[in-house]
Amino acid sequence: MSSSLYDILGVTRSNSCNDIKKAYFKLARTHHPDKGGDPEKFKEMVRASEVLTDERKRRIYDETGSIDGEHVESFNPFQGGIPFPFEININDLFGNMFNQVKKGKKPAPTIQTINISLEQFYLGYNFDIHINRQNFCKMCDHGAKSKESCKPCNGRGIMSKIIQMGPMTMQTSGPCSECQGKGEKITEICNTCSGTGFLQEKRALSVKISPGTHPQETYVFSEVCSDHPSYERPGDAHIIIVEDPNDSNFKYFKRVGDKLENLETTVSISLSESLIGCVVQIDGHPGYDEGLFIKIPTGSFHNNKYCLSGFGMPIPGNIGKYGDLIVVINVTITPSERSLFSTKGRELLLPLFEDKIRKCESESIQNDLYLIH
User: Fold this and answer.
1) For the structural domain made of 249-349, what CATH number should be given?
2) Class of CATH domain 1-72
3) What confidence category does residue 221 fall into, taking pLDDT thresholds of 50, 70 and 90?
4) Sorting pLDDT into bands at 50, 70 and 90, what band is 97?
5) How does strand 144-149 pair with strand 184-189?
6) Sequence-distant (≥ 6) Cβ neighbours of residue 62 within 8 angstroms
7) What stretches of the chain adopt beta strand conformation (E)?
8) How far is Cα of residue 142 from the mean position of the Cα atoms in its chain?
9) Do the first three CATH levels of 110-139+195-243 and 249-349 match, i.e. the same topology?
10) Segment of 225-234, 236-245, 331-340 carrying the highest mean pLDDT
11) Cα–Cα distances in Å, from 69 out to 6, 57, 61, 64, 66?
């Protein structure tokens, strides 16, 4: 060929492979021998297209200006009727699933939830999580101490083949079966990792929970998961702390407030204690192992709420500062209290409240109400 391959197809070095394919197809419509074209010129066009649409062959041609000695499997453009002279790359058809998969940046994080008791949230808690991870072996290349270029595919990882499909003749490219599309073969495995390409490592992740930390707090440990050949960097580990469902204290106390700085609990008292007042012991408070004693005021009624300042949860970032304890009153009435209140209690209270209760002189008053429960 006396002319440049680019000149034969009427393209330049800056044109992409797709541009060159399009130029070839356009010329083939008019210069094909079946259309009256010159067979020798058409052969040159086919040869130019084979070289310039193959990245490796094109690079060699651009660097050396020669294609002599380069083995190219070709076909007779006149064989089998109407030819179909272009190359199909199996990797292109199937999204580079064989050997051209682009690595992701980082896999999704590994998430682990840890149950924490109310006392641990209150006092703070430090613990270690021990993990086993695998690292890429630094002594080898994916398990190989030494490699060599695959001879059947000349290190390309791709083999070409001629396929006859009815009147069409196609040259297809697919992964090399000898090297599984890698372009190289292992000649000696790495003794350090026994050819696996990975080494095992034990590691401890230290989690430090400050007093008053909120549930669902997430502790992020960057790139501590195992190395993976599909990703450029190892994944992160996310440790999420949650309220322990087996901790009975969460049944009696719940964290409330905009910053969950307060503790709320319900105290059950009798009717007598509701009217006169009493002292109750609150057990399970994380700051008081022997119980917290509080005085319930006289006249405390059902669903009343009282606040005891400074007896809630520690406030993160404010040493010595605590939220409040909210006490909700639940009044229960025993049958004996009800009987006593309806007799002697009424007599004692009547002089105090007689002028404040509703009365009616009608003779049609219904007196048949009865207690359901």
Assistant:
1) 2.60.260.20
2) mainly alpha
3) very high
4) very low
5) antiparallel
6) 13
7) 87-89, 110-116, 125-136, 144-149, 158-165, 168-175, 184-189, 198-209, 218-221, 237-243, 254-256, 262-270, 278-282, 292-296, 305-308, 325-332
8) 26
9) yes
10) 236-245
11) 20, 11, 11, 12, 9
Pairing of strands 325-332, 262-270: parallel
DSSP-based three-state secondary structure for 242 = strand
Taking a C-beta distance cutoff of 8 angstroms, is the pair 271, 333 a contact? yes
Q: How far is CA 259 from the centre of its chain?
A: 27
- Side-chain-side CA neighbours of 205 within 13 Å: the count stands at 21
Q: Which residue has the tokens 């699933």?
A: 97
Measured from the Cβ of residue 158, the count of other Cβ atoms closer than 10 Å reads 23
Query: Rounded distance, CA 307 to CA 294, Å?
Result: 11
Strands (E), 69-124: 87-89, 110-116
Q: Would you state the pLDDT for residue 312?
A: 95
Domain positions in the chain: 1-72, 110-139+195-243, 249-349
- Please tell me the CATH code under which domain 110-139+195-243 is placed: 2.60.260.20
CA distance 179 to 149: 9
Q: Give 213's DSSP letter.
A: P
Contact (Cβ atoms closer than 8 angstroms) between residue 46 and residue 86 = no
What digits encode the pLDDT tens for the residues 45-68?
888 888 888 888 888 888 777 765
- The reported pLDDT for the residue numbered 22 is 87
Distance CA 197, CA 181 (A): 18
pLDDT of 168 reads: 63
Does residue 74 sit in helix, strand or coil? coil
Residue 77 has pLDDT above 70, yes or no: no
On average, the pLDDT of the chain sits at 83
pLDDT at 245: 95
Q: What distance lies between CA 329 and its chain's CA centroid? A: 44
Beta-bridge mates of residue 12 = none
Amino acid at 90: I
Tokens of 90: 């199996």
Q: Give the contacts of 86 (CB within 8 A, at least 6 positions apart).
A: 21, 24, 25, 49, 53, 170, 171
